[in-house]
Amino acid sequence: MDVPFLLWLAVLGLIVGMLAIDLVAHRRAHVIAVREAALWSAVWVAVGVGFGAWVWVAHGAEFGQQYFAGYLIEKSLAVDNVFVWAVVFTYFAVPREFQHRVLFLGVLGALVLRGLFIAGGSVLIGRFEAVLYLFAALLLWTGYRMLRQRDEHLDPERSRALRLFRRLVPMTDAYHGQRFVVRRGGVLLATPLLAVLVIVEVTDVVFAVDSIPAIFAVTDEPFLVFTANAFALLGLRAMYFLLADLVHRFVYLKVGLALVLVWVGVKMLLKVDVLYVPTTLSLAVIVTILGVSIAASLRATRGQGRRALEAPAAPPFRVASDEETAALEPVWRRRAAVR
Questions:
Q1: DSSP 8-state class, residue 171
Q2: Three-state helix/strand/coil letters over 173-220
Q3: pTM of the prediction?
Q4: What pLDDT, on a 0 to 100 scale, did the predictor assign at position 338?
Q5: Of 45, 197, 214, 275, which sits with the fewest C-beta atoms within 10 Å of its C-beta?
Q6: How many DSSP H helices and E strands does the chain contain?
Q7: Where are the domains of the chain?
């Protein structure tokens, strides 16, 4: 696939432009309602699918199918990531009106990190084809682990990232609006919102370790790997606010994701020396597994409505009072003028 440098710049410009639109639309802290989240989710999906349709028309059906296979894998794995975020935000009692800022920066960081991972993965595959065996083994192991631990959930209280952050960074015990740092008594302090952002970024890195090898199993074109990742990630914030209160309904999704990872791991093993699995077949298998797992989940939980996760009785952080926030000092102090 011949991708000129100007096309790379155009795609990056589109991504930056969409992020800017999203940032401007949510510049004020507010609770994002289901209707607003559904509208934005539809916009992001339309952008991702529209880009895939352009790839199909401009570069042929094979590359179009590779893009959509990668997009589906990333989007489905992103749903699991959304559920982890729901657990994190609930445990730390992050006010809903502050969550979008954390997710925006978290997704921005994930785009940068995954871009670096994709570049590194492309170089490794180009120089050492045997690394595909390592990727395949990682996918098979991750799929097996997800099947065994399908009923287990993240426990933020045991997060090593949080313990390390608290040990190294002085912080307040209260949220001060959407601020990540504040100054009190002449000391610069992190707020709990910054700690939550760090945990979100760490979880993004963990998910990238699974998702990047998975998408390389369906396409080895760096342009398709990056764009499928990027357009799947762009809609994560809206997807979170749409699905966060429906975690309890997707009871079989993790099983479906595990089977998808096992499938693409087997496909990657076969691809190295044995057999090339056509992209059409691979895409059909992925769609079938995800469709069955989602349909089975919704059928098993039919009649259940939206329900927020149960918050801890004593959250580790609180919301600062207006008086506490008003007493804060400016974060950036001007140097006194020299007489």
A1: B
A2: CEECCCCCEEEECCEEEECHHHHHHHHHHHHHHHHHHHHHHHHHCCCC
A3: 0.83
A4: 42
A5: 275
A6: 12, 4
A7: 5-76+97-156+204-312
